[in-house]
Amino acid sequence: MTSPHQHDAANDHAPADQNAHLSPTEYWEKRYGDTERVWSGRANATMAAVVGELTPGSVIDLGCGEGGDVLWLAEQGWQAHGLDISSTAVDRAREEAAARGLEGATFTATDLSTWQPEPESVDLVTASFFQSNVALDRAVILRAAASAVRPGGRLVVISHAQGPVGSSRPNMVTAREDAAELDLPSDQWTVETAAERSRPSTGHDGQSSELVDAVLVMLRR
User: Fold this and answer.
1) CA angle (73 as vertex; 210, 209 as ends), nearest 5
2) Are strands 105-109 and 149-162 parallel, antiparallel or unpaired?
3) Share of the chain above pLDDT 70, in %
4) Cα dihedral sign, 129-87-1-80
5) Whole-angstrom Cα distance, residue 85 to residue 52?
6) Residue 39, Cα to own-chain centre: how many angstroms?
7) In angstroms, rounded to a whole number, what is the distance separating the alpha carbons of residues 2 and 119?
8) What is the pLDDT of residues 133-176, one digit of tens each?
9) How many CB atoms lie within 10 A of CB 117?
């Protein structure tokens, strides 16, 4: 089981993954161990645009990687906790939080396939590009995470809906498909947003393209 990590536009044109046969833990530890830094450190722009309209509270970020989203959330006043399967990524996130003096950014290395949150304990759960080349019970994990949202809180899922021409990303989905797959009880949840948003991107080769993100925002009643 794995939790995908912070997205970087520079990886939008990356070649097919040669390590997809590894176990989730091996995959992500190798991914982070093979380079000093994998992601840009910036927050996901689509997530920031959505969450930037909300009143800060407590938040859990799934598959936080090196912590870009969590650090941004903490800077906006959220008590932000990031979860990731890679201890290497989590160590880097903690170091960056300490360097920025962000006491509101905390992190835990954990396998989300066995993680069980405290019910109704946070105002927000975020998952940016929670799609993977290796084993991932995505819907099961997101449903479990949704149980952590208290009434009046939200689940925000940002997914790859369409990549650049020639790219090979796993499990592209629309926001409506995400909502249908999660199938959260309609008497407890309201779909606030289920739409696609385009954004510009620049690949490793410097070539510009347009990507499409699926944006699902669900409100807990």
Assistant:
1) 5
2) unpaired
3) 76
4) negative
5) 27
6) 13
7) 22
8) 676 789 999 999 999 999 999 999 999 998 765 565 656 899 99
9) 18
Distances from the Cα of 95 to the Cα of 40, 98, 100, 166, angstroms? 15, 5, 9, 36
* Choice among 55-64, 78-87, 200-209 with the minimum mean pLDDT: 200-209
- Whose tokens are 């949202």? That residue is 149
Q: b/e map of 126-154 (b: 16 or more CB within 10 Å)?
A: bbbbbbbbbebebeebbebbbebbeeebb
Task: List pLDDT tens digits, range 94-140.
Answer: 999 999 999 999 999 999 989 999 999 999 999 998 887 676 789 99
